[in-house]
Every structure is written in structure tokens, then in C-alpha cells.
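TICKET: design request
STATUS: open
ATTACHED STRUCTURE:
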């Protein structure tokens, strides 16, 4: 599990605006209905983010994160993975997520992503830039969905993306890195036992070999899930991660 129910996203620089949060049920092309949470800025800019949660799906950390983006003028939509197998039930700590993770299929997930993108494009200006921000399994899926050229992302921002999970036999995020089509800002902890630095370096090598713009940041001493307001020892890493994100979004 990446974040528990007490986790809180760090505050971004320049926060102070207002945003309205909205619980949603979106529908994919195959009829799947799934949970989502949108944050609408009072003064929206020309960028939006699609948020991929960790293995627990759409729980409170990601709703709060969507609001933090909204408060700095970035429309945000966080989506759930498990509508097909768990329905529209709660994703609090009592949710037994692993049986549903094991049933996750990339083709189905891509249909949900398409529905999320459609929603964001209906909300924003024509030609608005949409970025993906994903955490843990969501970071892995950020890279995997970066292989789909039809999505039209402006960029990919995976946090501590797991590099060894094989999604339904389609390959791991590391296996598929040479097919990624969008600029990447990858954010990793240097003391993450589940994601060795050697694997992160291998990811960077494969991404750079494609010719796409690649920026991989490894925060020395930071653990998995370091991006959490409770972890004062990682406050500098979290602040820099926010700066990296906003610079990446601004430049794309």
C-alpha cells in the first residue's frame, strides 16, 4: 500500500487559489462505470492533469491532490481502476485491493483513461494540454499508457513507478519503456527498497534511447511514498518535486 488514510499531499508553491471538488461517476465505451473526482479551479489555466492513484484506487489522498492542483489553476481528475470488479464501493483502508489489482487489464484501463480524457477535454479550452501524474502502480500505468499515441498527452509524470509488475502479460513498465511516446518527468526515492536505483537508471537509459525528452530525478535518502506532508524529513524533496512538476507542465 502506497498511502494510508492519514496521508496528505504536500502544499504546492503558489497555493492560495480556490477550487471546487466534485465526486463523479464516469462511463467508459464498454459501459463500465467507475469512480472519479474532479477539481475545478476558480481561475483555470490551459493545463489539466489526469491522476492515476496507487494500488488502492481512488482514496482520499488523490482527491486532496486533485484539489491542490485545482488551487493553483490546474484542472485535475483522479480516476479509480476497479469499477469492473469492485463496483462503486469505498476505497478506504478496509478495501481489499489486491484481488482487483490482479484482474486489471490494460485494454480495459485504456478505455477508462479515454473516458477521463474526454471529460477533461469537455471541461477545458480547445487544445488544452493534459498531463498524467501517477503514483506507485499508477506511476507504472503512467508509463504504460504513454505507449498509446492516440491519447495525445502533453507529458507523463510518474512518481516511484514500479518497474516489475507485468500487467496481464503485456510487459512491465521497464519492458515497454522503449515504446513511450511522450516527454517524461520521473520522480523516485533513492532509498526505495522496492525500486532499486539500478532499475531506475535502466529506465532512464531506455527512455533516452527513444529520443523523447526525459528527466529522471532520484531523491537521495527518500523512501517510497516520500511525497507526503507528514514526512518532515522529506519536505525538501517534496518541495522540489512540486517545482519539477510545475516547471515541466509550464514548459510543455
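STATUS: resolved
RESOLUTION: sequence designed for all positions
ATTACHED SEQUENCE:
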Amino acid at each position: 500500500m502506497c498511502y494510508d488514510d492519514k496521508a496528505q499531499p504536500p502544499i504546492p508553491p503558489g497555493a492560495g487559489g480556490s477550487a471546487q471538488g466534485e465526486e463523479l461517476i464516469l462511463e467508459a465505451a464498454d459501459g463500465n462505470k467507475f469512480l472519479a473526482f474532479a477539481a475545478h479551479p476558480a481561475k483555470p489555466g490551459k493545463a489539466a492533469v489526469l491522476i492515476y492513484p496507487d494500488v488502492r484506487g481512488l482514496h482520499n489522498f488523490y482527491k486532496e491532490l486533485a484539489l491542490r492542483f485545482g488551487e493553483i489553476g490546474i484542472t485535475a481528475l483522479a480516476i479509480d481502476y476497479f469499477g469492473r470488479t469492485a463496483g462503486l464501493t469505498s476505497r478506504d483502508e478496509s478495501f481489499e485491493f489486491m484481488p482487483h489489482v490482479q484482474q486489471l487489464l490494460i485494454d480495459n484501463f485504456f478505455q477508462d483513461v479515454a473516458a477521463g480524457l474526454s471529460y477533461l477535454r469537455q471541461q477545458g479550452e480547445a487544445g488544452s494540454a493534459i498531463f498524467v501524474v501517477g503514483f506507485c502502480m499508477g506511476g507504472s500505468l503512467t508509463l504504460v499508457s504513454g505507449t498509446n499515441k492516440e491519447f495525445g498527452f502533453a507529458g507523463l509524470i510518474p512518481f516511484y513507478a514500479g518497474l516489475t509488475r507485468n500487467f496481464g502479460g503485456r510487459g512491465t513498465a521497464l519492458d515497454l519503456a522503449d515504446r513511450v511516446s511522450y516527454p517524461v518527468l520521473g520522480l523516485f526515492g533513492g532509498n526505495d527498497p522496492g525500486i532499486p536505483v539500478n532499475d531506475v537508471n535502466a529506465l532512464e537509459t531506455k527512455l533516452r534511447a527513444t529520443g523523447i525528452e526525459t528527466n529522471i530525478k532520484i531523491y537521495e535518502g527518500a523512501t517510497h511514498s516520500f511525497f507526503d506532508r507528514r514526512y518532515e524529513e522529506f519536505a525538501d524533496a517534496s518541495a522540489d518535486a512540486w517545482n519539477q512538476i510545475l516547471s515541466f507542465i509550464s514548459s510543455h
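CLOSING REMARK: The chain has seven helices and eight strands. The mean pLDDT is 95.
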